[in-house]
What we know:
Helix content: 25-40%
Strand content: 25-35%
CATH topology: Aminopeptidase
Number of strands: 7
Number of helices: 5
Mean pLDDT: 94
Number of domains: 1
Low-confidence stretches: none
Distance between the termini: 30 Å
CATH class: Alpha Beta
Order of helices and strands: EHHHEEEHEHEE
Largest sheet: 7 strands, mixed
Structural class: alpha+beta
Shape: globular
Strand order of the largest sheet: 1-2-3-4-5-7-6
Amino acid sequence: MNIEIRPYQPSDHCDVVTLITTIQQNEFGLPITYEDQPDLADIPKFFDLFLVAVVSEKAIGSIGLKIIGDFAVIRKMFVAQENRGREQGIAQKLLMALEEEIAARGINKIYLGTTEFFTAAHRFYERNDYLEISMSDLPSDFPVMKIDTKFFCKINL
């Protein structure tokens, strides 16, 4: 399988929205809709960089970067269920590409929020040197989503 990691293009919109909302709603039963996520409505406007993992012109993974002051925020990291796992390495490729961009921009702090239900994601972030932190340890201008219950940080990329 030939996996391409590339910047988001407007033609990816339907695939990306379907990927993310299907995982949130159908796989995990989270009470969140497309309308609850204004960052999905206008990806180029909200994100400083949004990468997509593509196979045969279909988006199967995503990761977004938002820069706020002197720190970076990772949002919308999702990989289609059938494409997960270390064997394919899609999540790892997405994260590495985003971290390289963050480092190139001279930023050395990354934060992210996720839900308690994404336990495999928690292990993935921990394997990649992210430390779980409490909500009170987040920067005051960190954009917390209503379903975020667990938070991670990585410093000194």
